[in-house]
Design goal:
This protein is an alpha+beta fold. 26% of the residues lie in helices and 20% in strands.
Length: 529
């Protein structure tokens, strides 16, 4: 089986710029959501990191700028008739950024590393379909028992626990990328620093200034080096979206991967077709800490959800670039059906206030004598701050007192992943693969890296386990539906909105195409002087 790469120039539309021309015709200044917590692909977990690592690393497979799966380090592959065995043939000209050949042993050792509990990978669950992966990650088996092998230097074999219809998509994820074992042995945790980091992707790390920029340059040893048009790219963290728009207008940034939702009308008027909207597989939600009272009480969670005006959030705050979410799994997923819904779509939020007050009263709260108090944590951006203020106003009508705790993105998500205490926290998720499992697995018992509130439901876990073994995709979809229905009754995550991508793309940047995977690898883009 082999997928042909599309011509990355096809269909590129010329855009018109209202602002001044860029000063540096050689450097792509790429706005990125946040400063990455790590450049170790096996410890990464955020979208901001994924964008950078997609440039630095080639997994067996990767995405093009249309979001299609294309060959990465592997030139072709085959799948056994039972769907349990995959065989990948590596490109013979694959090279690390230090010139060494990329071999099958690099992939075997890397897949063992991410599953090794000593690595502390928060995203290891993504690759649990590999035979023995879960047992290895739990420390029950040795990493060398993982279902991966290298019959020769140019072939990688992977065995699965059960057929997984989305497995090829998993291999495009940064967690499936290889790491240079000799560099880790030499430098330890410092192997990701400039001068130490050895990667196999089309770019290599040149410099990193935390909070300011990450500078990459084209990797001369990459097999496709001659076709990489953009020779240098600087990733610039842009959590202050309004400030980032000003920098874009001044010609200091060539693209932004997010925009202030409350300014969309003005941005469209100012920049016209440079504002590019597209589809996305993403969810914005509230994670509730079910480990602690009173948030362990489903009545409290239901009351909070009932009075949220999701339509207002999506339309007024985000300018229609988000859609109201009454379910976890967004539209556009493969292997699913129309999802179930939580309460609240019928009527207006004010119509549900009486029921919400009754739920809070039954849980022991009175707006005058004993009001519910909430600490809401979120990662700071214009959009997230506005959402927090709006939620607090909606809950105030129930007598709820809300206070805010906010940090930068990497601190926020690291705090949740590492088990920090909280009441309610902002959670967002962009799919790694287009299957409902990629949303529902987040709430499985034991998935503490993402299930920050430690919700646990035996029936939910059982349905997902049965779905993982089910080969009939229609029956599997039904099991997933039943599992999501449980989560929407219990509300360990309260869905708020589903994402659309929203970007600013300067006219000199060509080859960008919005897609469901939100993939725009720099190798397929080019700059016009």
């Amino acid at each position: 089986m082999r997928l042909r790469r599309r011509d990355w120039l096809a269909g590129t539309a010329a855009l018109t710029l209202a602002g001044p021309a860029a000063a540096d015709d050689l450097l792509y200044r790429r706005g990125n959501d946040a400063d990455p917590e790590t450049l170790d692909p096996h410890k990464s977990s955020t979208v901001a990191e994924a964008h950078i690592l997609r440039d630095l690393c080639d997994g067996l497979l990767t995405y093009d700028n249309f979001g299609a799966i294309v060959p990465g380090a592997a030139k072709d592959w085959s799948v056994a008739a039972d769907g349990l065995a995959y065989r990948f043939t590596l490109r013979p000209d694959g090279r690390w950024s230090n010139g060494e050949p990329v071999t099958s042993a690099d992939f075997v050792s890397s897949l063992r590393r991410i599953m090794d509990p000593a690595t502390g990978a928060k995203y290891a669950e993504v690759l649990f379909p590999i035979a023995g992966a879960a047992a290895v990650n739990r420390g029950e088996k040795s990493p060398d028992t993982l279902g991966v092998g290298a019959p020769d230097t140019g072939t990688v074999e992977i065995r699965l626990e059960q057929p997984t219809p989305y497995f090829l998509e998993l291999l495009t994820h940064q967690t499936a990328a290889p790491v240079h074992a000799a560099s880790i042995a030499r430098y330890g945790e410092a192997f990701t620093r400039p001068g130490n980091l050895v990667t196999n992707g089309p770019y290599r790390l040149l410099d990193r200034v935390p909070g300011d920029r990450i500078l990459l340059e084209a990797n001369p040893h990459h097999p496709d080096a001659a076709s990489v048009a953009i020779r240098r790219v600087a990733y610039l963290p842009t959590p202050d979206l309004s400030g980032a728009v000003r920098r874009y207008a001044a010609g200091e940034i060539d693209s932004l991967s997010d925009l202030p939702g409350d300014q969309m009308e003005a941005l469209r008027a100012r920049f016209g077709s440079q504002v590019v909207l597209g589809p996305a597989l993403g969810l914005a939600a509230l994670a509730v800490n079910t480990r602690k009272a009173p948030f362990s009480d489903v009545r409290v969670r239901r009351a909070l959800s009932l009075v949220i005006d999701r339509e207002y959030l999506a339309q007024a705050l985000y300018g229609g670039t988000m859609s109201a979410a009454y379910f976890l799994c967004p539209d556009g997923l493969d292997n699913y059906r129309t999802p179930p819904e939580t309460e609240g779509r019928q009527g207006l939020p004010i119509d549900h206030e009486e029921e919400a007050r009754g739920l809070l009263a039954a849980a022991g709260f009175d707006p005058k004598t004993n009001p519910l108090q909430i600490e809401y944590r979120f990662n700071m951006s214009d959009n997230n701050r506005n959402t927090a203020v709006a939620l607090a106003e909606m809950w105030r009508d129930l007598g709820i007192v809300t206070r805010f705790v906010y940090t930068d993105a990497k601190t926020h998500f690291a705090y949740l992943r590492d088990g920090g205490d909280f009441d309610i926290a902002r959670m967002s998720w962009l799919a790694d693969y287009a299957d409902p499992q990629n949303f529902l697995f987040l709430l499985q018992t034991g998935n503490d890296g993402f299930n920050a509130g430690h919700w646990s439901n035996a029936a939910y876990d059982r349905l997902l386990a049965e779905a993982a073994r089910e080969r009939d995709l229609r029956r599997r979809a039904g099991m997933m539906y039943d599992a999501e229905a449980i989560a929407l009754r219990e509300l360990p995550w309260i869905p708020l909105m589903h994402y659309r991508t929203k970007a600013l793309i300067a006219p000199r940047l060509q080859g960008y195409h919005p897609n469901l995977r939100n993939a725009a690898p720099t190798r397929y883009l080019r700059l016009r002087a």
